Amino acid sequence: MAVLVESHPTLTEAQRALGSDGTYLGGGTLVMRDVNAGTVQGRILRSSDPALRQIRASLDSVEIGAGVTMAMILAERDLAHLHPVARAVGGPQIRVMATVGGNLFAAHPYGDLTTALLALGARIVTAGGAQRPIEDFLRDRERAGLVAAVQAPRPREPRAFGFLKVSRVKPKGVSVLSIAAHLPRDGGRLRGVRIAFGAMGPTPLRAQAAERILEGATLEPGVIARAAAAAAEGLDPPTDALASAWYRREVAGVHLRRLLERMT
Ligand SMILES: Cc1cc2nc3c(=O)[nH]c(=O)nc-3n(C[C@H](O)[C@H](O)[C@H](O)COP(=O)(O)OP(=O)(O)OC[C@H]3O[C@@H](n4cnc5c(N)ncnc54)[C@H](O)[C@@H]3O)c2cc1C
Fold first, then answer.
1. Per residue in 44-70, pLDDT tens?
2. Atom 46 in ligand 1: which residue has the minimum CA distance?
3. What's the domain range around 183?
4. How many domains does the chain have?
5. What is the CATH number of the domain that holds 114?
6. What is the pLDDT of residues 190-201, one digit of tens each?
C-alpha cells in the first residue's frame, strides 16, 4: 500500500488533519521502522511549525518543543542537567533524529528521556495549548493527541538531579532499567522528592515507596539503604529479551542506591 506524507504549517492543523487513520511523524526513528516493516501504512503527517524546535529556559524552568532532538538538547547549555539523559539515547545517528515528542510515546524498553521528565514533574502541552501533568499524560497517552512541548522545572543545583541507565551493550544499548531522581534540598533536608524508573512498567513509573522514605530526610547511608530496599515496591517490571521481571526487581534497589550515593 502507498504511503502518503502530508506536511502542515502548524501543529494545530496537523492535529485537525490527523483523523483516525493518520500517523504523526516526529524524527521517525520508530515510525519509519514501522513503515519499512509495513505495519504503518496510509497517511503520515508532519508539521513544519518552528515552535516545535524551540527551547526556552528561565532561571527555574525550561520549555522544550516536541520536535527538539536529543542532539539539540546536547547542544544547549541551559539543558546541561539533561545531557546525560540525551546522551544515553541510541547512538549519534539516532540522536540527531530522535525527538522529545517521540520519546514520550516510545514503548518499553525505550523512553529514557520520558523517565527523566517524570522525575522532574514535567507538564505536557498539547496542540491547542492545554497542559497536564506527565503522570496523567502517561496514563492514557494513546488518546492524548499531538504534543507541542514539555515544561519542566530546572534543578537549582547539579546534585539535585541524577540519571542512571543500565544496559547490557554499552554505550548504545537499550535500558534494562533507567532511573531518574529529582532531590531538591531545603536546609539540608530533601523536599519534593521524585524518583522515576524506566523499563520497570508499561510506561515510566514513580517509585513512590522510596520517595516517601526520602521525603524530609537527609541523604545519609541509613536512609539511602531503606529507600533502596523499597525501590521496586509498586513497580510492574516486564520480562523481555533483556531481563526477567525477577532480575529487574532484584537489581532496582542496587542501582537506586548507587544513584543516590552519587547525589549526596
Ligand atoms: C536503534 C535504535 C536505538 C534506540 N535507542 C533508544 C534509547 O537508547 N533510548 C530511548 O529512549 N529510545 C531509543 N530509541 C527509540 C527512539 O529513537 C526514541 O525514543 C525517540 O526519542 C523517538 O522519537 P522520534 O521522533 O524518532 O519518534 P517517531 O518515530 O517519529 O514517533 C514515535 C511515536 O511517537 C509519536 N509522536 C512523535 N512525535 C509526536 C508528537 N509531537 N505528538 C504526538 N505523537 C508524537 C509518533 O506518532 C509515533 O507513534 C531507539 C530507536 C532505535 C531505532
1. 999 999 999 999 999 999 999 999 999
2. 24
3. 160-262
4. 3
5. 3.30.465.10
6. 999 999 999 999
